[in-house]
Amino acid sequence: MKTAISDHNQPIIARSLTKILGYALQLQASAIHLQSTANKLEVRYRLDNGLQTVLVLSAAYGPGLFKKISNLAGLTPEIHEGQFKIHRPSYNAVLRALWVPTAEGPKIVLEIERQNKVQPELTELLPTALEKTVLTALRPSGLLVITGPTNSGKMTLAQAILRRLAKPNLNIVSLSEMAQAPIAGVNQSIIDPRRGYDWPQALHSLGRQDADLIFLSRCDRPEILRQALLSSTNKLIITILPSPSATDALRLLTSLAPEAKLLLAQLKLLIYQQLEPRQCPRCRQAVELTAVERLAMEKKLNFDQVLKKIVRDGLIGEVEHNFYKTTGCANCQHSGYNGKISLQQILLGGPALADWHLLSSSEQNKVIKKQTAHGLLESALAQTLLGNLSLEQLLKLA
Ligand SMILES: [Zn+2]
Q1: I need a surface site. Which of 11, 34, 340, 385 has the fewest CB within 10 A?
Q2: Ligand 1: distance of its center to the CA of 338 in Å?
Q3: CA 178, CA 218: separation in Å to the nearest integer?
């Protein structure tokens, strides 16, 4: 991995790239899209409120910028994916580059993963009640799958769980395509086919490492999933699968597994996570819902029932439940939103999942509902009553 340096004496391309990257990091963008066309180079950032065009440059910048990024990330006409690091005083960031040919011209997407020097603890990522559910379900062996859309904090959650489980008497092995912040007691191997270390090779050496717990940064290839299932008979395996929902994840897993039955038997826990823009804590205020708003809400969800469940589960206290609205302030650049909040669905494995892959899709959904220890809607209502989500966001999720 090479490092981007910010040196003001470099030529104009390097300076432009430094500015594009610096501004994206300052705005906490999660990705940068550089689209080159015949007459312009458009730079867009993925921010809390979606993709925003931040800069339109002359097409003359395209070839130079793309070449510079390709050099940094190790992209070639044959290799379309790569990464590079940026160092800043309070954090490091890994930029994952993907080259996409489009009809208009070449495009590069840079996904940004900040690696704060201080990694969040599990307690900061999951409410205490959910943390307990997760840790209890993780018996000495079996499979934990963390799923969710792109940029939903799956890796951050996986790393926090690893940090929580790491103990001096456990041998933990991590196979990942991207370097993660080191964890005491975790042996980290970086998959890098350019250096001759690919997944088949890494999986092959896994058997000789006498691991108690294995982390696999992906499992969306049959050979990786097969190894995960083999190992999960007597070890705990934690892995990540990008997917738009818990149901989709389960369907994908059972279709990829050498034996769907085996997968369902070994699955201990599936955590689905998604991120939503968080209402700005500086300018949010408790509000009474209007009669119209209350009616709209009652149409979408059984408020009293969901409230009872989240109070019983310990996600929120029993007293005073308010909704919140924001007014906009300097802290949130008058958008009303600042940062992200994560919502989870926690699905328990176990005998109830046996033959799930053979059921009709309506039966499948019923089983998923029954096995869901904690649902997305419950997560969303808890975050709404804590002030982090607006009523509109809640209704969109209901
Ligand atoms: Zn604000």
Answers
A1: 11
A2: 7
A3: 11
